Amino acid sequence: MSSRKIAQIGNPVLKRNNKSIRGLKTDSTKKLIKALQDTLRKNDLAGISGPQISKNYKIFLTEIRESNAQSNQKDPLRVFINPVITYYSKTQNIIYEGCRSVVNGQLFGPVRRSNIITVEAYDENGQKYEFKCDGILARTIQHEYDHLNGVLFIELVEDYSKLISEDLYKKKVKNSKKQLEAARITQKSYKLLI
Known about the structure:
globular, about 30% strand, 9 strands, 6-stranded antiparallel sheet
């Protein structure tokens, strides 16, 4: 297993410029994907980015499993290399977010984001694709994309007086009707681009 330590808020690696990955199918890219995957699964995360494991490259992974999904929905492991979000819906919602890079994931706060997004990226096979989605999946992609731009969720919190601990989040917010409705995935579309 190649799980890595997750960088914490204040570590300059989380604010550095991230480089595009040039060799999409190289051994070094495969090792980076494996390290991200192992770290994501070891820490039971929905997403993780290169800078979070001290690798300043434009890459992140998502995987919505029942163990980490607020709405008990699933989405398989997805690799996003050199991603660009090309569409943000005007309709937005607020979901409480946390991050393993912010106090080891023990702090949550309300963040407003677009309901639906479209992203273009390369997968682990070097194939360019377009992916459109909503719910917790769109939220996770936006959160990880922010990491590639040096932005932590804590910088986007709507109301700092509503920050809460992980324990309180799990007891009061995670399975609340409002949180579950905003997190529900109702659309996903994937297509390869030439």
